[in-house]
Design goal:
By secondary structure, the protein is mostly beta strands. It has no helices and 14 strands. The chain has strands spanning 2-3, 9-20, 23-34, 39-43, 46-50, 60-68, 71-77, 90-97, 102-103, 107-109, 113-116, 124-132, 143-147, 153-157.
Length: 162
């Protein structure tokens, strides 16, 4: 018996835990399933419950490199594998001008690097990144970037410990 609710096909990580003779065994594999929050698969009287969900953790090690006085390149590492809850489809980048409190429309990247252009010299920007699987996960700790006219940037990384 396979019970499905929605019809959007996505790829997810399936983990099966088996306890045999007091030894826990984990079997992990990637499969295509129809998008939903919770499903049950029954094979030979064994029920397997799986879910595709937003990542539990944010991208790591966000950093910025100033390319010109109006262009920066952001780079980061993916969330830890065990916290992705599926295949990362893309990353969402949030950039806010601190002085005006204007936030750009969320930018999307298929890779762990993204170049932002048309920034204003002498403005301060707050940058964060989130991963998207079947839903958006938490945003990374923000970094603050102060652009200067000469083509240098002051980058301030703030770490938040949960």
């Amino acid at each position: 018996m396979l019970r499905l609710v929605h019809t959007e096909l996505i790829e997810c990580l399936l983990k099966v835990y088996i306890n045999r003779n007091n030894d826990d065994i984990e079997i992990s594999d990637r499969h295509h399933f129809y998008r939903q929050h919770h499903s049950q698969l029954q094979i030979n009287n064994v029920s397997i419950i799986f879910s595709c969900a937003a990542p539990n953790n944010s991208p790591q090690q966000l950093s910025a490199t100033m390319m010109t006085s109006s262009t920066i390149t952001l780079s980061w590492s993916p969330p830890p594998f065990e916290d992705t809850n599926g295949i990362i489809q893309y990353y969402l980048i949030s950039i806010t001008e601190v002085d005006t409190n204007i936030t750009f429309s969320p930018l999307q990247s298929l890779s762990t690097e993204f170049t932002v252009t048309n920034l204003h010299p002498h403005y301060t920007y707050l940058c964060r990144v989130a991963a998207y699987t079947s839903d958006i996960g938490p945003y990374s700790s923000p970094i603050t970037i102060q652009l200067s006219e000469e083509g240098t940037a002051d980058i301030n990384i703030k770490l938040y410990i949960n």
